[in-house]
Amino acid sequence: MNRRMILYTLGRIMLLEAALMLLPLAVTLIYREGQAVQFAVTAAAAAAFGLLLCFFSKPRTRVIYAKDGFLLVALAWLLLSLFGAAPFVMTGEIPSFVDAFFETVSGFTTTGASILSDPAALSHGSLFWRSFTHWIGGMGILVMCMAIIPSLSARSIHIMRAEMPGPIVGKLVPRARDTAKILYLIYIVMTLVQIAMLCFGGMSLFESALYSFGTAGTGGFAPYASSCADFSPYIQYTITVFMLLFGVNFNLYYLMLIRRFKSVAKSEELWVYFGVAALSTVVVAINIFPKYGGADAVRHSAFQVASIMSTTGFSTADFNMWPGLSKAVLLLLMFVGACAGSTAGGIKVSRTVLLFKMMRRQLRRLIHPRSVSTVRLEGKTVSEETQSGVANYLTLYAIVMIAVFFILSFEPFDIETNLSAAAACFNNVGPGLGLVGPAANYAGYSAFSKIVLSVAMLLGRLEIYPVLFLFAPSVWRGK
């Protein structure tokens, strides 16, 4: 283990967080609010801590191995959340550190679960930081570091594999750093386009930025308790489209840039993703038609399906009041999620497709024991190693999901609330059903349960393994 390189990189990440915190500081100054000091102190503390790590941990070699990458990612996200929570506590807007930590983890992991009943009561600077954490965490903070900091390592692909969601992570171009730059360039351009379109629809620049941060990171923090319910159909449809677009594998956008449109059109995951979204929209729209009527039923259905499947978590209506079939569809979509290589959470469409193909191959083997069959995805044969990895991940996924649900069962809430809370946080969706529905929040949970849910959000965003590495004694003993 290259401990010095891990600590040195953590120092660089803390310096980056300090720099990013200057943006909400600037917002407080623009709006002449009194929270500027708290953001300045937190940024200074993060910078000082980062400088100390960099000064005392200069690495002899900059190589990062696979184990180092997993450990680095887990520690980085934990540190970011701890320091990121400080401004909320220091300003007194979220006085409990556990609540502030929950809110910040929810932001960085792009979950969108909140303990706030009235987000509009926050200052502009805190609202900006709260939503900006979505944008930072959407593509991944370490991927951002790779894009803007001189090469951290000769093997930085291990960082991308630990932080980017999906069963397979590869490089678009030979150098991992160049891949990170391409991904972030696409991410920034799409965010700016959405901001412009929302401004065109009548939103203020500040509101447009916050909602675009939440959409780009598929996070769902909104500056208003009503989320998107009070906006025009144009704005709601715009956000719907962008939620779906940010749930697409970003590699496909790169292929479009280099005009490999046939490769994009052949993407099996993409077709399944849009197919499931379209089918779910039709089912939910028919189910809620008596409640809203034709056009409104389609609009609410499309928005909520896009929001839940992309794990964004915005809402235009309290779907907790919808019929049982609609709630069941949305609950299933929480687990499926969007595409691998996107900013969304959930199991991912590619894993779901692989699971069904693996099941089909197993059935064929039972019927025809001597037959030889392979599993193919995107026109390529999926290796046994990848199939085994998917099976192992889904087993771990089920264990974590059951464990979180079991722990929450000690709370005085009904099964629907606890199950959907576990699913919504672990899958980085945000709002659930029952007492944690879109019109409610997570404030009623105990401090211990909020910590458990915070860990669940980290497990879901980093896809379990990096966080588990923190608790493996063999990792810490390794040289």
Task: Give the secondary structure arrangement, pairings included.
Blueprint: H1 3-20, H2 22-30, H3 36-56, H4 66-91, H5 97-108, H6 124-139, H7 141-148, H8 157-163, H9 176-200, H10 205-216, H11 233-246, H12 250-257, H13 261-265, H14 268-292, H15 294-309, H16 324-336, H17 349-367, E1 376-377, E2 380-381, H18 384-408, H19 415-426, H20 447-461, H21 465-469, H22 473-477
Antiparallel strand pairs: 1-2
Helix pairs in contact: 1-3, 1-4, 2-3, 2-6, 3-4, 4-5, 4-8, 5-6, 5-20, 6-10, 7-9, 9-10, 9-11, 9-12, 10-11, 11-15, 14-15, 14-16, 15-16, 18-19, 18-20, 19-20
- Low-confidence segments, given as residue ranges, are 153-158
Number of strands: 2
Q: N-to-C terminal Cα separation, in Å? A: 4 Å
Strand arrangement in the largest pleated sheet? 1-2
* Large-scale geometry: globular
How large, in whole angstroms, is the Cα Rg? 22 Å
